[in-house]
Amino acid sequence: MKIAILSQNASLYSTKRLREAGEQRGHQMRVIDHLRCYMSITSHRPSVIYQGNPLTDVEAVIPRIGASHTFYGTAVVRQFEMMGVFTANESQAISRSRDKLRCLQILAREGIGLPVTGFAHSTKDIEGLIGIVNGAPLVIKLLEGTQGIGVVLAETTPAATSVIEAFRGLDANILVQEFIQEAKGADLRCFVVNDKVVASMKRQGAPGEFRSNVHRGGKAEKIKLTPEERTTAVRAAKAMGLKIAGVDLLRSNHGPVVMEVNSSPGLEGIEGSTGVDVAGKIIEFLEKKAGASAPRDRIPY
């Protein structure tokens, strides 16, 4: 097949691995900077143009859309869908997962375990908002934050009030969540491909750090999931309509809870800690599904 990887940086680990895995299986792989694409939006012959040439021979697309360019990136993916090209993750599913509030509302609607979460607009309602999550300690998250940026642990009610007031003073949208203390600064990254967890790792935050992001000094190791954790990860990915997803879970006293569903999960940490050829699993999924049917998102919200 002729497969396009939508990525701004061909030298990134994830992009290189996907390209290598595809070439090893005999496919023609091409890395395309989606921000350099432009589109002809017509009723009968929609097209994507890159470096002056229409991309007419692409059979499958792997979107690696950065969070800061979700709007334009998903527009490019949607254009490929209009052309009948198979996309590993569909544009609507990517948009759902990037909107943290919408993501949580969808997961809640499906009955999937979540931390108790509050959302409000006015600073006059801070006391009630804090009460929803049973008071401090609690976690405050910027809706637009990524990779642990804009995530604050407030250990007291006055501290929480100050942080919320400061964020709202900047007109930033925030979520307030209960702090899962029993997780002890660790989370589980479950890598889902085609409704199956193909690899999983435990990420442990650095000493004194409640965020477990590896690039912030956290450590990753292979871990065996419980059946409930595995089922929760698959259900979360399905709820978003994602065929490729990184589902982040916390182990709470009332079972696994979903922290985030990532539509462009990185491969370096998961492959390095588990030894699983995740890139190969993604290419194998494309081989099975590309050309089978036109992309169609059936999730109504």
Helix residue percentage = 25-40%
The average pLDDT is 92
Biggest pleated-sheet summary: 5 strands, antiparallel
Unreliable sequence segments: none
Count of alpha/pi helices: 9
In terms of quaternary structure, what is this?
A: single chain
β-strand amount:
25-35%
The tally of strands reads 16
Summed up, what is this model?
The protein is an alpha+beta fold and about 300 residues long.
Task: Explain the overall architecture.
The longest helix has 14 residues, at 227-240. It is globular and about 60 Å long. The strands form four sheets. The protein has a five-stranded antiparallel sheet, sandwiched between helices. A four-stranded parallel sheet has the order 2-1-6-7, with helices on both faces. Helix 1 (13-24) packs across helix 9. The chain has helices spanning 13-24, 70-82, 91-98, 100-109, 126-132, 157-169, 227-240, 268-274, 278-289, and strands at 2-6, 28-32, 37-40, 47-50, 53-54, 60-63, 86-87, 117-118, 138-142, 151-154, 174-178, 186-193, 197-204, 219-222, 244-252, 255-262. With 301 residues, it is of the alpha+beta class. The model has no long low-confidence stretch (mean pLDDT 92).
